[in-house]
């Protein structure tokens, strides 16, 4: 049985007249009649009562008509879904992200994409950078938001934002009397950082600044989540150095200051498999690049904030 047989049957069921039904499916009446007989032989039931003047559906015909309509509708939907998927307008996109991606308005990126591609299903995975790399290799995710990668043979990495590192302090901290904070003053405080295991690049960039200034930071706590760091700082357990876009999280009980005479830059990137043919991925990358060129919502401008 072919879909055209169902189309022929639905046409004659609607018209109850072979002469009127045949033109609807763009075929000659003699060929049309033969196709309906072939369908009945294949099913082993009579679908139509035929007389010289009238055509009526049999009980089997009425039952078959309901299913034929449903089958044709589903087949048409399958065609539309396939066509939309081919153009990246439908499908599934698995996205990995490090917790600090929230700082660059990650939810806004997803919202903008869903507004344009509502039929694409997004799967979100909170993963460290190393976990994302492995997930990309295994095909478990299609794209990841992380700090820029070192050389990876099969994975491309594109920087989407560069921003300064700022000092994050609890409210009423004594260092807030200064509009800018010297790295020397940061070094003697209890410092809370993302662990090197979970954020190696971010950790190394910060530690390198202390080494360049011949300073040894007093790292009192390390954790794997930026939100945890903010909570610990707000609780008065120390201070931290974080990307400036952390202000977008608007965590309570915190104040922010720039570093004095130190320009530490932190980067965020997207990573994906080289040569991935996915049109959904291509459309998502196009949107991220456009937003990157406009500049993400990074509030910090270098002035002190409480």
CATH topology of the largest domain: D-Maltodextrin-Binding Protein, domain 2
Proportion of residues in helical segments = 40-55%
Average pLDDT? 87
CATH class of the largest domain: Alpha Beta
Overview of the molecule:
- The protein is an alpha/beta fold.
- It folds into 3 domains: 3-86, Arc Repressor Mutant, subunit A (Orthogonal Bundle); 90-159 and 268-294, D-Maltodextrin-Binding Protein, domain 2; 162-266, D-Maltodextrin-Binding Protein, domain 2 (3-Layer(aba) Sandwich), CATH 3.40.190.
- Helices cover 42% and strands 24% of the residues.
- The protein contains 10 helices and 12 strands.
- It has helices at 3-15, 18-24, 29-43, 59-86, 106-116, 129-138, 183-187, 200-212, 226-234, 279-294, and strands at residues 48-50, 55-57, 90-97, 119-126, 143-146, 155-170, 181-182, 191-194, 219-223, 240-243, 254-260, 265-273.
- Strands 3, 4, 5, 6, 7, 10, 11 and 12 form an 8-stranded mixed beta sheet that branches. Strands 1-2 form a two-stranded antiparallel ribbon. Strands 8-9 form a two-stranded parallel sheet.
- The longest helix has 28 residues, at 59-86.
Walk me through the topology:
Layout: H1 3-15, H2 18-24, H3 29-43, E1 48-50, E2 55-57, H4 59-86, E3 90-97, H5 106-116, E4 119-126, H6 129-138, E5 143-146, E6 155-170, E7 181-182, H7 183-187, E8 191-194, H8 200-212, E9 219-223, H9 226-234, E10 240-243, E11 254-260, E12 265-273, H10 279-294
Parallel strand pairs: 3-4, 3-5, 7-11, 8-9
Antiparallel strand pairs: 1-2, 5-12, 6-10, 6-11, 6-12
């Amino acid at each position: 049985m072919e879909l055209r047989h169902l189309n022929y049957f639905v046409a004659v069921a609607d018209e109850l007249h072979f002469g009127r039904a045949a033109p609807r499916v763009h075929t000659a009446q003699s060929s049309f009649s033969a196709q309906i007989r072939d369908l009945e032989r294949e099913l082993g039931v009579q679908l139509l009562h035929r007389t010289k003047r009238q055509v009526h559906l049999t009980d089997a015909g009425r039952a078959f008509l309901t299913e034929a309509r449903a089958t044709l509708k589903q087949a048409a939907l399958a065609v539309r879904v396939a066509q939309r998927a081919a153009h990246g307008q439908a499908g599934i996109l698995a996205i990995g992200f490090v917790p600090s991606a929230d700082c660059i308005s990650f939810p806004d990126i997803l919202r903008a994409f869903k507004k344009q591609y509502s039929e694409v299903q997004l799967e979100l995975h909170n993963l460290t950078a190393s976990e994302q790399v492995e997930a990309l290799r295994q095909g478990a995710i299609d794209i990841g938001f992380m700090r820029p990668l070192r050389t990876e043979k099969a994975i491309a990495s594109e920087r989407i934002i560069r921003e300064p590192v700022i000092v994050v302090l609890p409210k009423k901290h004594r260092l807030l009397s200064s509009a800018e904070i010297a790295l020397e003053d940061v070094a003697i405080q209890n410092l809370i950082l993302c662990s090197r295991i979970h954020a190696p690049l971010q950790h190394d960039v910060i530690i390198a600044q202390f080494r360049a200034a011949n300073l040894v930071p007093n790292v009192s706590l390390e954790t794997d989540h930026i939100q945890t760091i903010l909570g610990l700082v707000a609780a008065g357990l120390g201070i931290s150095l974080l990307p400036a876009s952390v202000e977008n999280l608007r965590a309570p009980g915190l104040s922010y200051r720039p570093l004095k005479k130190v320009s530490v830059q932190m980067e965020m990137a997207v990573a994906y498999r080289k040569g991935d043919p996915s049109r959904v991925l291509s459309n998502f990358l196009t949107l991220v690049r456009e937003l990157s060129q406009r500049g993400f919502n990074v509030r910090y401008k270098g002035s002190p904030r409480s």
